[in-house]
Amino acid sequence: MRSASSTIDPREAAHFGRMAADWWNPAGSSAMLHKLNPPRLRYIRSQIDAHWGSDPNGFTPLASKTVLDVGCGAGLLCEPLARLGATVTGIDPAEENVAVAAAHAAQSGLAIGYRAAGIEDVAGRYDLVTSLEVIEHVADQAAFVNGLASAVAEGGLLILSTPNRTPLSRLALITLAEGSQRIPRGTHDWEKFLTPDDLRALLEAAGLRVTDVHGLAFSPARGFELSESTTLDYFMTAVRG
Hints:
alpha/beta
């Protein structure tokens, strides 16, 4: 897993591995991820329905679909995707995260395949590949995107999210969130944040076509919500061809 071409940053893997035991605690070190999950799922569901023409009111739009979640942590996204009907595989470089994810899925009665791996270790292709708030933590962003693109099946979707490299993201995520320890210190490196143009260029170089860009904003009254503004954080969806 730690080949010369690995996209895994061992320091990042160790940082997130230390959070494993607390990952499913909505008031713990991953509290922000719990708050991010509802708008994440709304965005992913909108892209699924638009791409495959599924019923927006249906319960299992991913029935018969395979999903790969890259940088899955302890499974906060994998579990709802499995409930949408998908056959889900989650990979993460931290062994601790994978162990917690597998135990929680078993307790929840969900059959999710987890393994400690990087994107370069993935064989085969998937209908939907997701990687949310991960690319800013990898060692080689271009190689990471190439790996993600290689895992997308013909006619499939790739959905990413990441903070934008703006003064607002530095203030909100590092100065305020890490400064107040709402997020563990050292979680983010602002220099590794990508603008939408940066990420689009990487996806196009990997042979994918971007079909949607949507912002994620924060409101003191409403919390995290989908937005037209990409200034803080954003989603990007791409397809092959």
